[in-house]
Each structure stands twice: as C-alpha cells, then as structure tokens.
Amino acid sequence: MPAAPCTYQLHFTLDAPVSVTVGKLGTFAFPAGRYVYTGSAKRNLEARLRRHQAKEKKLKWHIDYLLTAPGVHMREIKRSEEGECSLNQATGGTIPVAGFGASDCRSGCGSHLKYLGRL
Ligand SMILES: [Zn+2]
Q1: In this predicted model, what pLDDT tens digit does every residue of 40-69 receive, in sequence order?
Q2: How many angstroms does the Cα of residue 48 sit away from the middle of ligand 1?
Q3: How many Cβ atoms from other residues are within 10 Å of residue 14's Cβ?
C-alpha cells in the first residue's frame, strides 16, 4: 500500500477584488486572480476536502473566510504525499496576506496562501 496522501492544494479563482475579514488576522483586500492554498489533514483528508468545498459552514480556519467570499470558485484540488510546508515553498506566486493559514507553521513559510496572478 502506498502512503496515503495527507497534503492538499486548493486551486481557486476570485472573480473580482473583495475585502474579507479573516477571523482575528484582520481585514484584507484580495485582488482578483488565481490562488493556491496548501494544507494538510493527518486524518480524514476527503472529509476535509469536502468541507473546503462547502459554502455553508462554521468558519474556523483562515481559508474558510476566503473560500466563502463572493466570487470564489474552486478550480482544482490536488492531493500529495509531500510535506505541507515543502510543497508550499515549492509553489510559486506571492504572499497576499502575511501569516495566512500559517498559524501552526514552523517552517517559515510566511503564508500557506499564495497568489498566482491575474485571471
Ligand atoms: Zn509552512
């Protein structure tokens, strides 16, 4: 049996600029364009991914606040066996909000959300 993937990347787009209050992190203006979020679930990966695609849910993680914003469309979900932080660091793009999704990060990623540019 191969190792079960526990890392995932959510590729999504934002149709138009939107201002989102990301829990206690603050309120930020997100430009329209393409984004990728890298996360992991040591257990129940598929349940986590279903949750990420649900628009109705109790907002818990930083990414929840952004994914439930108007104009956000999930484009692709990739699963990986690579470590969350190494995969994130190997992903291009820029950091739109410092500290986003990186509360538990001990690898100096700076953010687990990357902005990949305009649509
Ligand atoms: Zn990290």
Answers
A1: 999 999 999 999 999 999 999 999 999 999
A2: 18
A3: 21
Distance CA 17, CA 19 (A): 7
- CB within 5 A of ion ligand 1: which residues? 85, 105, 107, 109
CA of 110 to the centre of ligand 1 (A): 7
> What is the residue type of 72?
V
pTM tops 0.90, yes or no: yes
Residue matched to tokens 């959300």:
113
Kindly give the distance from the C-alpha atom of residue 119 to the centroid of ligand 1, in angstroms, as a whole number: 25
For 35, other C-beta atoms within 10 Å of its C-beta total 23
